[in-house]
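Exercise 7. Predict the joint structure of the components listed below.
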Amino acid sequence: MDVDLILRVYPFFLQAAWVTIQLSVLTAVLGLACGSLGAAARLSRLRIFRIIGAVYVSLFRGTPALIQLFILYFGGPQIGIQLDAFEAGVIGLGVNIGAYMTETIRGAIIAIDRGQTEASRTLGLSRWQSMRYVVLPQAARLMIRPLGVNINALIKGTALVAAISVVELTYTAQRYIGSTYKPFEMFLLSGTLYMIIIYATGRGIAWLDRRARIT
Amino acid sequence: MSLDFTVVPQFLDVILLGVLWTILITLGASVLSFFVGIFFAIIALYAPWFVRLPFRAFEWLFMGTPLLLQLFLIYFGLIQVGIDLPAFVAGVIGLGLHYAVYNSELIQASILAVDRGQTEAARTLGLSRMQTLRYVVVPQAVRDVIPPIGNNMIALLKDSALVSVIGVSELTLSAQQAIGRTFRPFEFYVTAAAFYYAINLIMEAVQRRIERRIALSR
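Solution:
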């Protein structure tokens, strides 16, 4: 184990970890937006929206995220979409994880007993009101943990943007493995930073989940 | 530059070869992850603490870091210690170990869910601890865990695209080779996606059939 080397290169890995954190946060926000829209579409009364939602989930969960990223970043310019690598990474990964989040959010909503909706409709609430004031508050609590699993996968998934040369943790590790021939040291350094990010996120989600249970 | 999918058929042989390799990698890594997963589960549950604790650390490391990073470690790390594996083998080992850790979590839960009475009865009938595991507990645990392991295998198919970065010429790298000659990334990546989607649909159909048979055998 080459400790001197680790001490020499770790500032670059810290910078890269900051890029990984930015990627993760932006991807999570976009993923939640896509997931909410997707779930709304899949639960819509209109058949056309249900079909669009189902096709979105099936296509994006049925093909590798790496290929989706490549289509967007390398194929995009052919259809008039010019993005830099970071933007393509956030959009590609966000839309991809959104398909998984669609199913998580939809699952939590349909897990709420139908009697709840029926009761609130009988009491005179509109369809939207019963969703907004009765079903969603309960479903939101159910979805925190499974969304946490999605977010955990998303953080590890940000490593894929190394393949389109975004200088984040995995790309940095790969570059230093190439220049120093010390794969174990570089793995240890970047792996530790990933685990810190994932552990901190996990604690945050557990905290949210606990709070949601109390109220 | 407009889209032109008519160039795709000229490279169909390259792409189909890539499909074949993708299927081989997925199958190889799935089989590896299944058996190693059982092995890991038994270590995690029954090994003495001085084996179990380092193993837990290993498991934790594999679940907490990206697969892509692990592939780099396995491919370049083995070269560093003097083992120069072909990229295909390194890819199968990397994917297989990664998913073995996930399968192990499922199998552990499933082993613990097998009724204690089963173990007690087997031991009373004179089977050793090892025999009880081998012939009584593990077969029942494995049956329950096949549907979620099927999900892991479908996830593995999609993650097999990652081994293109260590130079395994599977579907993704085949598409890249065709792109290198034609400069048409959109067409060939969409083609690759279509093949992945098709394999994915086939695997889902097989999984549904197996699940039905398991449901019937109960």
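Discussion. The first helix of chain B runs from residue 12 to 46.
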